[in-house]
C-alpha cells in the first residue's frame, strides 16, 4: 500500500460556512437528513428493500447514515469502491456492474474471503466471467452473491434475452461457492427522460422484461429471489411494480441540477439540493465576478452549475475558474466573497474532492473524507 | 498532515501495455520526448524563455523533464500545486493566477520562507491583495516575485487598463519584500479559436495592449523585465512578437483532441498525441462494446474522447462506462480487449488519475504519481 499526503483540509468542526476554504464540497445536513427520511418513508410505503447507490457520494459516513435510515446495504460500481466500503465495516455491498480482468476478479474474491460475514454481490453478463469467479471462489474458499445483469433498455451491459439469462444463471448455480440471487435490471436510460409519462413507460417496459425473465428462470427451476433496479428518477415505478423487490437510488441524497430538471411525479417524494460547491470571488470588476473553482472542482457533463442566488449566471467555466455575469437584480458581489453553486451532476463532482464539509445552519458540524474518491478500478 | 492510502497502482515497470490495469492514464514516451524537443527548438529559435504550464500534467517527473529540455521553470495555478512542485525541488515556479483569502496567502508566504533559494512568483490584479502579500512577506521575512495580471481579452481576471497596471505596480514596488517582475498577459480566449487568422489577430490585440502597458510602466519609472503569456494554441505569435519574453504552453507536451481541432499554423511545430486513456472491454454484444472507463476517468467538457482505431465511435458516456458502436471497417473487439482513447481535454482528465503509466514501444518504463492531483486550493 502506498500512502499519499493530504495537506489541505478545507475546514474544521465549528468553523462558520463563510470561513471554509475553497473550493469545497458542502453538504447541508438538514436537507440531507430530510432526503434520508423521505426515501426511507417511500421504500417502507412500497415495502421494497432500499439499497442506495454509493457511487454518488463515495463516503463511508454517508453510507452509514443511509443504513441507519433504513437501507439494507449499499450498491457500488467498482471493486475498488467495494474494498473501501467493506473494509470500513459496511456489511452488505452489491457491485451493480460487471467485473472483468483477472486482477480485478482476484481482488474481489480476496475481499470476499477476508470478510466471510459480509454479503458481497456482483453482476455478470457472460458465462466466461461467471465460470472464472466460481473457480476463484473455490480456490480461495470464498463466497459471492451473483446477479444476472439484464439489459432493460440502456444498451450498455447485460444479457439481452430471458434465454441468455437462464443459461447464465445455470452457470452460476453450477458453482458451489456462488449464490445466484436474481436479476439486476437497472433502466439507466429512463432516469433523465424529462416527462413523467416517458419515464413511467420506460420502467414499465423494463418491468415487463424483468417479469418475463423471472418466469423463464422459474420455469427452469432457477430461484430468482431478488430483482433490483431503479434510480432517483424512476424508483417509485420500480417500487410500485410488484416485480422489483429492491431499489437502488443514489443521487436522491445529494440531488443535482440534472435530476431537478425532471418533471416531478406527484406521487414521488421531493428531494432537496443538499450538495453545493463553495467558491471564493478571486477577481471582480463591474458586472463580472470570477470564482476560484472550475472544471477541477465540478463536472459539466450535465451542464453548468447553478448559483444559489438570483441576478447572476455562469458565463464561462475553465479549469480553475468560473466567471459569473450579472443578469438582473441580485446581491452585490465583492472580492473575497463566498458563493454557493449547485452542481449539475453530483457523481463526477464528488469524485473530484477529498473532503465533504457537513454544515448545519451555517456552522461546520463535521468534515468527512470522500473515502472512495478515485476508486475507479 | 493526513495520509490517505492508495491501494491500486495500475502497472509496474516491465509490464506490457496490454497488461496494464484499467482505467489508466498512458503516456507514450517517444511522442512525449518528441513534443519536448520540438518546443525546446521553437523557444530557442524565437529566443524566448520557456516556462511550461504544469496545471496540464500535475506531475513532478514531467516538470523535471521539461526543465531538462530547456524550460527555465514551470507555471501552476494554485498554491497547493506550487507547494507540491517547490517541495519536490522545482526551483522556479510562477502561479499564473490570483491568490485570494488569508489562509492561502499565508501558505504561499510560508512556502516562500521555507525555500529562500527558490524563485516563487504570483499574479495580482488588485491593490488589496498586493498590500497583504507585502505585509505577510515582511512579517515572515519571505520574498516573492509579483506579476501584474493584465486582461488581454479573456475577461476573467486581470486589470483592465495600463493606468490600473501602473497603480498596482507602484503598490508592489512599495513593498520591500516583493519584486515587481512585469506583466502576465495570457490570451486564454485565443487558444481554441479554430482558424489561424483569428488566433493570430487575438494575440496581436493582446500584444498591443501589453506593449502599451509596458510603455506606461516605463513612463512611470517602473521596470517591466518580463512579459509572460502564450499557450499551446498561440505561443508562436507571442514568441515572435518581440514583446513577450516568456511563453507558458501546457498542453503541448500531452496534446488532446481539442487542441488538435485547431487549424495548424504552417510555422508552428506539430505536437503528437502522447496521452491516452486505456480501458478494458467489460461487456460486448453485436456491434457494441462497453469500456470500463467513463466520466470518472476522463473529462468531456471539450467533447468526447476519440478511439485510436477506425470503425468504432463513442456512442455514449456515463460515470463508469463508455459505449463504443461499430460504424464501419475496423478491428473486431471482444470481451477483455484493451482500447486506447485520446482525451478531449488533457488538464481535467489528468486530474482524475493518481498515476500516469509511461510506456515505450508497448512496454511500461515507469509509473509516475500525478503529484498535484486534486491540489485545487
H-E order of chain A: EEHEHEHEHEHEHEHEHEHEEEEEEHEE
CATH H-level name of the largest domain in chain A... which superfamily?
Answer: Alanine racemase
Q: What's the multimeric state?
A: homodimer
Structural class of chain A: alpha/beta
Largest interface: A-B, 71 and 71 residues
Number of domains of chain A: 2
Number of helices of chain A: 10
Question: Can you offer a commentary on this structure?
Answer:
The structure is a homodimer of 377-residue chains. By secondary structure, chain A is of the alpha/beta class. The first copy, chain A, folds into two domains: 17-26 and 272-369, Lyase, Ornithine Decarboxylase, Chain A, domain 1; 29-255, Alanine racemase (TIM Barrel, Alpha-Beta Barrel). Helix content of chain A is 30%, strand content 25%. Chain A has helices at residues 29-46, 60-68, 79-87, 102-114, 127-140, 162-173, 196-219, 235-239, 257-260, 346-350; strands at residues 2-6, 24-28, 49-50, 74-76, 92-98, 119-124, 144-149, 178-184, 226-229, 246-247, 275-285, 288-291, 306-307, 312-317, 322-326, 338-342, 355-360, 363-369. In chain A, the strands form two sheets. In chain A, strands 2, 11, 12, 13, 14, 15, 16, 17 and 18 form a nine-stranded mixed β-sheet that branches. An eight-stranded parallel β-sheet of chain A has the order 3-10-9-8-7-6-5-4. In chain A, strand 14 (312-317) and strand 15 form a beta hairpin. The first copy, chain A, is globular, with a radius of gyration of 22 Å. The two termini of chain A are 15 Å apart. The model of chain A has no long low-confidence stretch (mean pLDDT 97). Strand 1 of chain A pairs antiparallel with strand 1 of chain B.
